[in-house]
Each structure stands twice: as C-alpha cells, then as structure tokens.
Design a protein that fits this description.
By secondary structure, this protein is an alpha/beta fold. It is built from six helices and five strands; from the N terminus they run αβαβαβαβαβα.
Length: 168
C-alpha cells in the first residue's frame, strides 16, 4: 500500500537539503558522477559530499616507507578533493563536504553512509568499457545492496555534460 501525504502533512515534514555523495576515485567516469551530482544539487537546492578512501598498502615495505607512502597518498587525496570541490562550486553547487577515510573502499563507504544521516543519495559513475560497470558497482549489486540505506543513482560514463543537463 502506498502511503499518501496530504498537503497539510507536507507542510509538517522537516525540509532538509539533499546531500549527494560521490565517490572520488580514479575512474574515467568520475567526471559524469561529479557533474551530475553538482548540477542536481545546484538545481534542487541540495549539497555535495565527496568521499575518498586511502586503501592500506599491501605487503611489507622496508622501514617507514609504507607510512610515508600512505601520508603522500592521503595528501594527494586531499588535494584532489579540493580541486573537485572547486569544480562543483563552478557548476553552481555549494561548497562540498569532504570525507577522507583509510581502509577498504566499500567498507568505509557504507560506514560513512550509515553514520552520516544527512546523506540522501549515493551517485556513482558506471564504466562502459568491457561490459564491467566497475568494482564498487559490482560489489553493491552482488553483496552490498542491503548495506546501503540510501538510493543509488548510477550515471553512465558515456554521457556528455549536455546530455546530463538535459536529464536534470
């Protein structure tokens, strides 16, 4: 049964901005996900959150080399998030919130979604190469769909900015 809200009930509902979460990874389709989320936030009065995960370095490295490498990766991640934040603002979105986590990407992503109640939509770009949508989307489809408490918007990686604008 679909629950209908009367006009009076709508007035009583607390209005909150939609927070669109984008995973800032190294994929080619990141552009489409960012562009979609930023334009959607700009036109719908929403906000953007950018998530970047620094995965642990596998194997043993001599001395403190792994610590130095992880620190450099974390610094590069923060720089990327700053650049992406500025891009989102140029597209009309408010300054994004940023999250850098250390660990396994899908675990940290679901931990963030389940602890940050303001996140309303997860936006992912889907790879169109080789029939493989990407590791995160594969994980969600196969194992993690019950772990995610928010809707997932999947943006095809072959869409142009103009095509995305036409959708919004």
């Amino acid at each position: 049964m679909v629950k209908k809200h009367s006009v009076n009930n709508k007035k009583k509902l607390k209005k909150s901005n939609r927070l669109f979460l984008v995973v800032a990874d190294d994929s080619k389709e990141l552009h489409q996900a960012i562009y979609y989320a930023a334009r959607r936030a700009a036109t719908a009065g929403g906000e953007i959150a950018l998530f970047r995960c620094v995965e642990p370095i596998e194997g043993q490295l001599w001395g403190g080399v792994s610590e130095i490498m992880e620190a450099e990766t974390e610094q590069a991640s923060k720089k990327l998030l700053l650049e992406l934040s500025q891009y989102c603002e140029k597209l009309g979105a408010p300054k994004p919130k940023t999250f850098v986590r250390k660990g396994v990407v899908h675990e940290e992503l679901f931990n963030l979604i389940n602890t940050e109640e303001s996140i309303r939509v997860l936006v992912l770009g889907v790879s169109i190469e080789h029939g493989n949508p990407g590791p995160l989307i594969n994980y969600i489809i196969n194992k993690g769909s019950n772990l995610c408490r928010v809707p997932i918007t999947i943006v095809p990686g072959n869409l142009s900015d103009e095509q995305i604008d036409a959708l919004i």
